[in-house]
Amino acid sequence: MIGCPKLDDIDYSDKLTAILEQHEIKSVTILRMEVPCCGGIVHAFKNTLQNSGKMIPWNVVTISTEGNIVEE
């Protein structure tokens, strides 16, 4: 799934919760940019895990605005 919490008018938590409830997801990697507004994607996924009641391994990879990996 691709999204921009700053520009999209959608609640990602609801959509992600539906995906987790309807499919057997083994793990999730969140790829986000280093800009502050992209932190909303991480927050939405944390809400998703709480809402779904599932324990799924997940990690966050942060890239710079130039496309370099900043943090894994």
- What is the spatial order of strands in the main beta sheet? 1-2-3
Shape: globular
Number of H- or I-type helical stretches: 2
Question: Please, what is the CATH homologous superfamily?
Answer: Response regulator
Q: Share of helix among residues? A: 25-40%
Strand content: 15-25%
Cα distance spanning the termini:
19 Å
**Overall domain count:** 1
State the CATH topology: Rossmann fold
- The CATH top-level class label: Alpha Beta
Total beta-strand segments: 3
Mean pLDDT: 90
Oligomer: single chain
By secondary-structure content and strand pairing, the structural class works out as alpha+beta
Listing every helix as H and every strand as E from the N terminus to the C terminus, the arrangement reads HEHEE
Radius of gyration: 12 Å
Q: Give the biggest sheet.
A: 3 strands, mixed
pLDDT under 50 segments (min length 5)? none
Overall CATH architecture: 3-Layer(aba) Sandwich
Structure write-up:
The protein has helices at residues 12-22, 39-52; strands spanning 28-33, 58-63, 69-71. By secondary structure, it is of the alpha+beta class. It has one domain (12-71): Rossmann fold, CATH 3.40.50. Helix 1 crosses helix 2. The longest helix is centred in the middle third of the chain and has 14 residues, at 39-52. The model has no long low-confidence stretch (mean pLDDT 90).
